[in-house]
Amino acid sequence: MLLIFVAVTAAAFVAVAVLVSSIVEEFLVSQRIQQQTKETARAALEAAPAYAQADAQAVYSFVLSRAQSMDGRLLLLDQDAVVQADSASQHNGYRVPYREVRDVLVRGVDAAHGFHRITRTAESVGLLAPDEETVWAVYYAAPLIQNGECIGVILFSSLIQDVENSVREVVSRITLIFVLVCISIMFVSLLLSNWLTKPIAELTAAIRNMGRKGGARVQVHGAGEMVELGKAFNRMSEQIEAHDRVRDEFVANASHELKTPLSAMKILSESMLYQDEPDPAMAKEFFADINSEVDRLTRIVSELLRLVQEDTTDAPLETSMGRLDILVERVMARLQPIAAQKGIALTCDLTPTTCEFEPMRMEQVAVNLIENAIKYTDEGAVSVTVAPRGDQAEFSVTDTGIGVPEDAIPKLFERFYRVDKARSRSTGGTGLGLSIVKEIVERHGGTITVRSVVDEGSVFTVRMPLGKGGADV
Q: S-S: 76 plus which of 33, 85, 87, 344, CB 3.0-4.6 Å?
């Protein structure tokens, strides 16, 4: 990150340096050209009278003094572009081929200038000898006017090396500033890097520790994106830790529940095995007990598979609009003989209620809740109600059974949890039914609640979103 930041900063400074040098160079050159164009035009006006009178001494003295004052080289040319006077006394009598001179003599412009590469020599000051590897100079040409007629051309040449030097000075200062800024940025970045990357390093270390032993946490301070990331990691770590704890408890409870019927079958089978002549009546009783334990083991395995299926499936429920009251009525008709056998009055108050659900799973919810109410009610009544409540469908099962202690209600939907383990095993319970019910209801977007008083009874209430319209199930 530091290298990328320095690279971006360097690119920005280079762009600024190029832009500033270009602007400065353009400004200085344009100012120099405007100034020297005016000076050349003024010199042409002053030289025209002496040149028209062919006063060689006066012309040479003027050219020499004016070239010195203008800090350049000055030449007077006739109408054929032949040098008549040269402040450097080198090209007298030579024809010069420069474009600026042709523009004045042929095209009749009032002023012309152009850029040339020249070489500077000790003899000529280097203002008229072209050379591709020397300095830049500007040539200015203006007409010599006498009585409204062009009688010649004045040609002034001046170096602009000082302008280039000024631009180089600007670039060198910008470069120096750039280097100092880069060094400062790198120094400050190195000082701040530990502070900036410390949360990331801590988070990385925590992730590695979590992979080895779990339960890792990071210290969260202040505010900002890194703090939010740290909080999210801590929440994830807590959820993973809780998931591992639940998984371990689930494995332990499942092992215990499976071990109990297996141990019972082993004891019963060994008792039969070690008897030489077992009593037929006793053998039949033992086999009946073994059969009962096998049935219990089958129920545990079936409910475990069903619970795992509810946990692991990601496919959406195949729901449809249907009448919840009709579904519950069918379930009650199936369970009515069981209630009658125990002498329990099974009553209902079913209001036509339409909502969206998957019939098979919702039937499982109804069977579990109503069957549990019948199991844990020795005498009395079980009542079932279905009715719309606002924007929800409410399905309620009320019994007058043994009830649930208040401290056990929060654990009631945990897997393998039973309030009275001995009594639950005697009724054939596995401790998984209510867990399955909760999973199914929540997958339907609903909730399940419990109200209970010991020795007075319990009320299980399922609430789900209420649908509009639909057909009977």
A: 85
Structural domain contains residue 188: no
pLDDT digits (tens, 9 = 90+) for 283-305: 788 788 788 778 777 877 776 77
Residue bearing tokens 């209902």: 348
Contact assessment for residue 10 and residue 178, using Cβ atoms and an 8 Å cutoff: yes
Above pLDDT 90, what percent of the chain?
Answer: 20
User: Where in the sequence is the domain holding 410, given as residue range(s)?
Assistant: 320-465
Residues 11 and 152 in one domain: yes
The neighbour count for residue 112, using CB atoms within 10 Å, is: 22
pLDDT tens-digit profile of 351-367? 999 999 989 889 989 99
Would residue 184 count as lying in a domain? no
Q: Do the Cβ atoms of 439 and 307 come closer than 8 Å?
A: yes
**Residue (of 324, 318, 349) closest to 471 by Cα position:** 324
User: Is residue 328 domain-shared with residue 346, that is, in the same domain?
Assistant: yes
Beta bridge partners of 465: 392
List pLDDT tens digits, range 59-80.
Answer: 889 989 988 888 888 999 998 8
Residue 434, CB-side half-sphere exposure with 13 Å CA sphere: 21
Residue 352 and residue 302 share a domain: no
- Name the domain count of the chain: 3
Same domain assignment for residues 89 and 162: yes
Report the pLDDT value the prediction gives residue 250, as an integer from 0 to 100: 67
Query: What band does 120 get if pLDDT is binned at 50, 70 and 90?
Result: low
Residues 6+ apart with CB under 8 A from 389: 463
Residue 81, phi-psi category: left (phi > 0), alpha (psi -120 to 50), beta (remainder): left
* SS3 state at 382: strand
Q: Are residues 362 and 284 in the same domain?
A: no
